[in-house]
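Field notebook, page 509. I keep forgetting to write these up properly, so this time I am using the form the group agreed on. The chain and the ligand, 2-aminohexanedioic acid, are recorded exactly as supplied. Prediction of the bound pose follows.
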Amino acid sequence: MSDIATVLRDLGLKEINPGACTGRWIEPTEHKVLASVNPATGETIASVIQADKAAYEKVVAIAHETFPAWRMMPAPQRGEIVRQLGEALREKKDALGRLVALEMGKIYSEGLGEVQEMIDMCDFAVGMSRQLYGPNMTSERPRHRMYEQWHPLGVVGIISAFNFPVAVWAWNAALAAICGDTMIWKPSSSTPLTAVAVQNICNDVMDRNGISGVFNLVIGPGRTVGETMLNDKRVPLVSFTGSTNMGRHVAETTARRFGRSILELGGNNAIIVEPDAKLDLALRAILFAAVGTAGQRCTSLRRLFLHTDVAEGLLAKLTKAYGSITIGDPLEDGILMGPLVNQAAVEAHFAALDKVKEQGGEILVGGGPVDRPGFFVEPTIVKAHPGMEITRDETFAPILYVFEYSTFDEAMALHNSVDQGLSSAVFTSSMYSAERFLSHEGSDCGIANVNIGTSGAEIGGAFGGEKETGGGREAGSDAWKAYMRRQTCTINWSTELPLAQGVSFDVDE
Ligand code: UN1
């Protein structure tokens, strides 16, 4: 049996799979087939039949009907189900990690890392299910009690991107589930199989518990299914990961109906390397952040600011290291960089490099195609200057723009001058530079690291960014609050009716 056939079998996938599920797979009425393509070869792995509006309607109706019962289950019991989901993911870690590598193109180790991120998220949510706390406030009125509590929200729409085809679903799904929400997942059309595989895992767990309709799936075009979801009043929250342009549309559409959105949009992440940095650490961090996942993480390193004292030496080492990056089949041992997701991504990579040349940048390393089937490009280093407009855009490809600077203030100003605000880092041994980077006048990003690269965040922190990155927060810390509605409660257990702010409103009886 071939590698692909084994992976498909282990994950319960067929050659052609239905694209909508409410715990039971919905047999499609139309047959619009979506091929899942292995970006390392350009070949089809298997297919999914896309959901249409009618299928979406069935899914949202079930998610909506399931909500009232699910929200009344005690949160720790919902946590127990998420614990079982984490266990099921542990059992399927290898197969699912392989499928992520096959369908998305990231290397096997990163595919496993992605499934680990799902498992971590389930573990985190289990603990969280006993900690959906609201504070008590002291009332200004005698014998009154005030407190805040959190209620489940309803059906959550999860629209995820190709680059983290399963982990970002888990960030949302594990929290939504313990918070008492049901959900509908619309994955990227580039990665439908991993979504079907995860839905199969959810179905097994939920079947064992005699529940369905909590974890639901619709694989269909953004234009029809996605758009219907954005406009659907039965979906009070849409969590969207993707481009800033699309995110703006999601924000506007949901806001118009007073729905909420969690937005995780484009980044333009940077590292500043100070003269007192430990350069060996900086080098390794830069490599993983710029070349890892072929530059297709939201957190990928796009801009590198090198102090003039270290620029030449570090650039020489970086150039040498780029020469040793092994490019090829993501499932092969020793390969560090796989393909881009599709031909359009390859074209965007080269279009950006054309602009680099037009705008006076110098390609120091890479820049060429890779002569093999699939969607490969060379990781590229560009010597850039701040006037280059292209360095203000996020190109989802392994292009690293390198700038030189002479003062920390100058680096900080350039760092913060772009429209995006996701992830950032400084490499320094100086407490002063580190603290300045983290201060109110330092990095304006949602994630700010010292002596760690921009990518590869742990799930325990809240993940997301500022400005055109959209302001959303997902995964750890108190990100769960976005999946619930807040209620302030005041209870009078006195025999009087004192009004707040000392207002008197007494009627003569
Ligand atoms: C993304 O690229 O959308 O911090 C998510 C990271 C990963 C998540 C990235 N843990 O790089």
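OBSERVATIONS:
- The pocket of 2-aminohexanedioic acid is lined by residues 117, 163-164, 168, 241, 297-299, 455-457 (CB under 6 Å).
- The chain is about 35% helix and 20% strand.
FOLLOW-UP: compare against the apo run.
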